[in-house]
Amino acid sequence: MRKSVGALIGLFSLAAGALGAFAETSVNQPTPPAAVIVLGADGVFRAEIVVDSYSYKPDHLIVTVGHPVELALKSVTIIVPHNFVIKAPELGVEVRQAVPAGKTVTVQFTPTGAGKTEFYCDKKLLFFKSHKEKGMVGTLEVREAPVN
Ligand SMILES: [Cu+2]
Questions:
Q1: CA 40 – ligand 1 centroid, Å
Q2: To which H or E segment does residue 97 belong?
Q3: Residue 110 belongs to a domain with what CATH number?
Q4: Distance from the alpha carbon of residue 65 to the mean position of ligand 1, in angstroms
Q5: Does residue 124 belong to any structural domain of this protein?
Q6: pLDDT of residue 145
Q7: What 3-state DSSP class applies to 7?
Q8: What is the mean pLDDT of the chain?
Q9: 6 occurs within a structural domain
Q10: CA of 144 to the centre of ligand 1 (A)
Q11: Residue 5 covered by a domain
Q12: Would the pTM count as exceeding 0.85?
């Protein structure tokens, strides 16, 4: 089983290489903890999210209703562009932000409702799986009560 999966991945890599999608390697960076977000003295939740192929770190954010959230999306990829999407009208959050390779971009939003939703990258190359399907997905958790 393991062998056939390996063969499949090998084939997949060959196909990806043939298409010129070879540059999925990333700069080595220390990986941050799974969930870190800081409520500043000014009442703004801030976090840096490392954007890689194909992950967000941290991938679980916990914030509270009515506080602005400011996320620095730091791409550590060399060529592959990603994005950051949240579609959660029930939380009052609609975000679509491109994250070019190697760049850091900032997004800001203020949740108006409590609940959980996903943030994800919806990029997709031809017939390949979407980046979300490859693991570029995380959880935004908006709580009513203050965190800690
Ligand atoms: Cu992506």
A1: 29
A2: strand 93-99
A3: 2.60.40.420
A4: 28
A5: yes
A6: 74
A7: helix
A8: 82
A9: no
A10: 30
A11: no
A12: no
d(CA 53, CA 109): 24
Whole-angstrom distance, CA of residue 54 vs CA of residue 12:
16
Look at residue 129 and tell me whether its pLDDT is greater than 70.
yes
> DSSP states of 20-82 as a string?
T-----B---PPPPS---EE-TTS-EEEEEEEETTEEES-EEEEETTS-EEEEEEE-BSS--E
How far does the centroid of ligand 1 lie from the alpha carbon of residue 28, in Å? 18
> If you measure from the C-alpha of residue 36 to the centroid of ligand 1, how many angstroms do you get, rounded to a whole number?
21
* Rounded Cα distance, 27 and 67, in Å: 33
Residue 12 has φ and ψ, to the nearest 5°, of: -60, -45
Residue 25 confidence (pLDDT): 44
List the one residue out of 61, 22, 25, 27 whose CA is nearest residue 45. 61
98 CA to centre of ligand 1 in angstroms: 9
Question: How many domains, in total, are found in the chain?
Answer: 1
What is residue 87's three-state secondary structure? strand
- Ligand 1 centre and the CA of 105: distance in Å? 14
Task: Compute the distance from residue 122 Cα to the ligand 1 centre, in Å.
Answer: 6
Look up residue 134 and give its two tokens.
Answer: 């490859």
84 and 51 in contact (C-beta within 8 Å)? Answer: yes
Q: How far is the CA of 42 from the centre of ligand 1 (A)?
A: 32
